[in-house]
Amino acid sequence: MEKYIHAPLDAETIGGLKAGDFVYITGTIYTARDAAHKRMSETLAEGGTLPIQLKDNIIYYLGPSPAREGRAIGSAGPTTSGRMDKYTPALLDLGLKGMIGKGKRNSEVKKAVVRNGCVYFAAIGGAGALLSKAVIRSEVIAYEDLGTEAVRKLEVENFPVIVVMDAEGNDLYEKAME
Q1: Mean pLDDT in residue range 129-137
Q2: The pTM is what?
């Protein structure tokens, strides 16, 4: 089923999403990859404050290429989500409600998704140039020293994703293996 949603997310929106749904996101999402996740984890371990508000937000596992003239962002394809799995349950427990990436997640992430009523979306790998067209604005907001892995705030319009894991734990990758 095709759905159009707005980010940040709310419980009603998340509850209406099912594994396999095609979704178009409009609103604000954030980017963070491996290095940013590691730094956020270290910040939390030290009792510090994260550079982004996690509550109800979506993190896109993305390290974009430089923007071409007249564009908000360069190629914006997803990175492999499993590399963030060791950090994800803690972020979900702090209020993060959505993630965008590609690939399977481990059992601890799945438990945290269900426990916190979250959703995991997949963006199409290899389609970064097309995905970038849905990004209206991009601004580095933290960890600028990480280059492409800096945390960015993105404004997106009809950003295309697929629900891979819904809040009930239904997993599209597992269904495909049946």
Answers
A1: 94
A2: 0.95
